[in-house]
Amino acid sequence: MAQAEREQLRVVMFPWLAHGHINPYLELARRLTSASDHGDLDVTVHLVSTPANLAALTDQQTDRIRFVELHLPPLPDLPPALHTTKHLPPRLMPVLKRACDLAAPRFGALLGDLRPDVLLYDFIQPWAPLEAAARGVPAAHFSTCSAAATAFFAHRLGDSGGRPFPCEAMRLGTPEEEAKYTELFVLREDPAALVSERDRLLLSLARSSGFVAVKTCAELERPYMDYLSDPLGGKEIVPVGPLLVDDSGGGDTPETERVMRWLDGQEPGSVVLASFGSEYFMSERQIAEMAHGLDLSGERFVWVVRFPKTSGDAGGEDDEYGGAARALPRGFAPARGLVVEGWAPQRRILSHGACGAFLTHCGWSSVMESLAAGVPMVALPLHIDQPLGANLVAELGAAARVPQERFGEFRAEDVARVVREVVRGEEGKALTLRRRAAELREVVARNDADGAQVGDLVRRMARLCGKGQRAAAPN
Fold first, then answer.
1. DSSP E strands, 217-371
2. Residues 344-376: b if buried by 16+ CB within 10 A, e if exposed
């Protein structure tokens, strides 16, 4: 069909105010707008976030992907520079959520101006589909977390009657232990909150029109997709693939060149990459244990470590990480490894032939990137959904767990032992992990290259708003 005859499908995306959420939404936007198998539909996307988040992304706009600023109302201790989770003191997270909730009318006004056909929204903002519905716009929830984690929290937060999560591999202990974990990491209620923390995910899932989209592969998570669908009245869970992001766009900075040159000089499969997410700051104790563990392992490593900018940025003396800005232990000068502060090209490092293991927090994007590279994981979950990601990759046979009495508490000796087992082991468990990681690499690569999943999402969105020749066609 000629370009002039193609119908426009206008999509507004509204991820949570964290780059770990924005990046998958942005990658999905790229694929929605660049795919060529959408029949008679051309997709355009408006991605909504705060200026604090969008400032770093301006060069990623295209003629079909435009950024729209959402200005949050002012609240004490939350200047516009902190309208993002990046460098946000933990004590201010409830304030950021409250400010975002208070911005609901402003978001609704943006929808009125943009007049989209469909809204894709995140779980923190269960009011977003209501603002859309008030303007006649259908809305679907897009989850950047695994189906397993989403299903677990839906079970724990819903009417489970105290029963344990039915998928044994995902359980975090007894029902009482699971409840305590959920209270600790998910339900830190803010007395001034406009939306209860317990309700955010459940309402977001319930208010999704027709289906819930998930960043995942059905071959990895089919049982959890099926379980998640059940309490939603059979609402279909739609996988859109791993949405792997090319991190070469960061450019060959001097630091990146230093890392890649160093890797070029190492033996195949001899290096462990240690990295724990873009927005998590280890405590001084955790940094000390990690430094000692990596040194004690005797293996070569690249450790990506992040520190709060200042003690004030870390939240002051009452912040949960201990107040003062962290630093590497005095006298720590590794002879067998590199320490990179801030950012490193994670996918490029994982894909390098010298990389033999990934010591990771098991955030969902990191899990997908490790599987995409065929690199086995040393799982060390630290908070939120990460223990569930660690359980999933262990169940898939691609990870060995570092023992922890409590999440976030680990010993250097255990880190060293498990790293050695995965990097150096030639028999038994280590060999099995490497073989399984290689098998899963093919699964993830096949799904990432499968444009049919994104095409299916386009057709589903088209049906929601009655657009496209295929809008009424069955699956």
1. 236-239, 271-275, 300-305, 337-341, 355-360
2. bbbbbbbebebbbbbbbbbbbbbbbbbbbbbbb
CA–CA separation, 14 and 139 (whole Å): 11
pLDDT of residue 308: 67
Q: Rounded to the nearest 10 degrees, what angle do helices 412-424 and 428-448 cross at?
A: 80
Q: Could you tell me the pTM of the whole model?
A: 0.90
Q: With 0-12 CB in 10 A as exposed, 13-18 as middle and 19+ as buried, what is 79?
A: exposed
Q: Is 122 a catalytic residue?
A: yes
Catalytic site includes residue 352? no
Residue 136 gets the label, from left (phi > 0), alpha (psi -120 to 50) or beta, of: left
Pick the catalytic residue from 21, 38, 46, 141. Answer: 21
Residue-averaged pLDDT of the chain: 88
Name the token pair of 4. Answer: 């002039």
Number of H helices, E strands in the chain: 17, 13
| Residue type for position 139 | A
Smallest Cα–Cα separation from 118: which of 37, 48, 209?
A: 209
- The Cα 126–Cα 131 span in angstroms is 10
Per-residue tokens: 385:
């959904």
Set 122, 247, 295, 319: catalytic member:
122
CA distances from 41 to 30, 36, 113, 297, 475 (A): 15, 9, 22, 54, 17
Angle between helices 284-297 and 412-424 (to 10 degrees): 40
Return the number of other C-beta atoms located less than 10 Å from residue 205's C-beta: 23
**pLDDT digits 0-9 by tens, 174-208:** 777 777 777 665 656 677 888 888 899 999 999 99
Which run of H or E residues covers position 63? Answer: none
3-state secondary structure of 374: coil
Q: What is the length of the chain?
A: 475
Please answer whether residues 444 and 371 qualify as being in contact, where contact means their C-beta atoms are separated by less than 8 angstroms.
yes
Of 243 and 316, the one with more pLDDT: 243
Burial of 208 (0-12, 13-18, 19+ CB in 10 A): buried
